[in-house]
Amino acid sequence: APAAAQVQEVTLDEAIARALQVLPAMVQARGDARNADADLRASTGAFLPTVTTGGSWSRGGGTRFNAATNEIVNLPTNTSVQGSLSASLELFDGFRRFASRSASAADQRAADAGLVNQRFQVTLQTKQLFYDALATEELARVAESQVRRARQQLQISVEKLRAGSATRSDSLRATVEYGNARIALLRAQANLAAAQADLGRQIGV
Questions:
Q1: Given a cut of 80, is residue 37 above it in pLDDT?
Q2: Helix (H, G, I), strand (E, B) or coil at 74
């Protein structure tokens, strides 16, 4: 017999939260929003001055050989440190920086609106798949109940036929109804499996 499938239950809020985290469309929308924010910060930083710093350090002295006197002399240690700092700012660029910042701000608003729109779409899709799974599960339960009733009716008709209080056509009709109920149950179970798979794909399970 095949091993029983592992059942994982999720609430509607958990399904929505998982879908918002794992769906590629949401990941892309969040990435677009972050890129737009970075572009806006970069265009805003163009108004700041450019600062350049530099520095150097040197040390001299110590022991060395004097070739003129053939002696080793000790020179005092001499250390020097230099530093530099400069700043520059472009005062006028033909309003290029203002135009760039306006475009970046518009891109940011568009990316934020796209993220909100994508979030609502994913939430709607997840709710639809969640309630579809619930509905098909209820239909599967109804089909199981119909199979049980059809089986009972078949047993009753068989007992009546054995007792001589029913005809063979009654038992045959009950057999057909039982077969139809089983077919309906198999279809309901297949629909339930498909609905659960769609929901699982939506939430990354």
A1: yes
A2: strand
